[in-house]
Amino acid sequence: MADMAELEQEVDSGNPVRIVSYKSPLDEDLLFRPRKEAAPPPANHPYVDESTADRAARYHAIWEKADRMVSNKQLWKESPAAEEVIRALATARVVSVDVLDIGEYESGTADKWVVTLEGGQKAAVKVVWEEKGLMKRGAMCNYGFEMPTSEIAAFHLHRVLGFYNTPFVTGRKLDLLHEVLPVASSAVAKDIIVKSGNDTCLQGTCFYCKVKHTMCPRDGLIEVSMSYWIPRRLKLYTYPVKYMPFSTPRMDEWGDLDFNDHSYCDKVRQSIEPYNNDRYYYDLFDFSVLDTLMYHYDSKHYSINDNTKARGLTVRLDHGRAFCAHDRDEERVFLAPVKQCCTIRRSTYESLKGVRGGLLTKRLRESMSKDPIAPILDPVWYQALQRRLKIILDMIERCISANGADSVLIDEDVGSL
Can you tell me the mean pLDDT for 24-29? Predict the structure, then answer.
């Protein structure tokens, strides 16, 4: 996998962080390579009449548009070009498929693939193994396979709330026999079983599964999440997750202090990298809000760490363990930073206020309804989101009552470092 990364390295043994270095997603070697035994495109494919080279060049131009959107303030912005990128992730032909394996924290607790699409763009793929849109039994978020629908729902939730620092994600159906197997690495191909009559099955493993799982989907079509591969060098701060609120060693410190007690907040701000920087310190409260809404115990804080204009941007990705429980809320841990520090960006507060009265779920439903593998979430999730939104806003307003709006709400330029 040398073409993917310089992999990870320790940069500070006392307070370890991880650096992952990605090559440009625009892999020139694969740009105009024809697919082996390529299946004919569907009749309604937008580029059905184009040659392989012309179609690849067209997609290459789309990926370049996505690359140009990345800045110090956001990964992308609402525009016709953004919609074009999302559609391209769902329609570009697959040129290669391999196992995603760039360190334990990155490859995680279940199988993932990295694919290269026409035009050279890479994407991270997670296969739907469990029934879509449901919660994990007993809210055991880390057990079983990851949930690709959670990746999709998280992307749309960020989008609805105006957070543009999570990469594009779309659902997609892939044909195991005609789209995946002909371009699969040996590591992927060994898990694809072609039976008599062209029935095609897939085997998969996860860290907490006792046995290898096998599914034989109808017509050999699997559903997946397809996540845009960010063409930047990323730095991961939350490894180990020893200072995020959900971290087991820190749950007591975050969870047991009283409302408006700044003692642990001050410790984090003064001594924990990167939260001794104001911008990243305020990011903690965005994490707190989003993780409360999604019931997400697996947050990871990345930032772009290269010499491009995007250096310093906080990136939120890998949400396959989010949306794992809708029958309970977690205020003690997830919401602890807001509860104790009584701090939040004014822009975040205004975004939350703007989706009260059912607007959050209305807009989220509308946004996700366009996804190729919709429906994404079971309807019961929308009740949970509305309930949690009220919990968050009540906490912020309690802080404002106790301290005054000027002390709680931060007018901070997200571009400053």
Answer: 37
